[in-house]
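Our preliminary data section would be incomplete without showing what the modeling component actually yields. Below, a chain of 127 amino acids is followed by its predicted structure, encoded as tokens that our downstream tools consume directly.
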Amino acid sequence: MNKIIFHFFIFTTISFTFFACTTLSLDKAKDENISYRESDYIPECFDWKKADEAIEYFIFENKDIPIRYIMAKIDLTAEQLKLCYYPAFDNEELSESREKQYYKDISVKKFSKGNECTIAINATQFL
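Predicted structure:
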């Protein structure tokens, strides 16, 4: 009998620990009519700052939502512009399937410092 109670207690504890959390569903958010003004996430004007001869950037932040984004304008016609990417593929590798290839992770900060970048973008999610 004690063994059954013990197993029931363990099962109940694990169940509550992993399955008792709830999240706000999108349907519930729609029902509550949560909306933001455009000015909360789109600024009235864009104050571009020069980072380099070919690069300008803009940072927007609203801690009330919270939202923060950084935008960059890059003049791709600039002669001094140099593009670096990781992993560096040669033409033969580009034609092969990338699914079988594995590469050691490198942080954007480390990549940027190692290549003396003015701007670095993690585009992994677009592969």
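The chain is about 30% helix and 15% strand. The first strand starts at residue 49 and ends at 50. Preliminary results of this kind motivate Aim 1 of the renewal.
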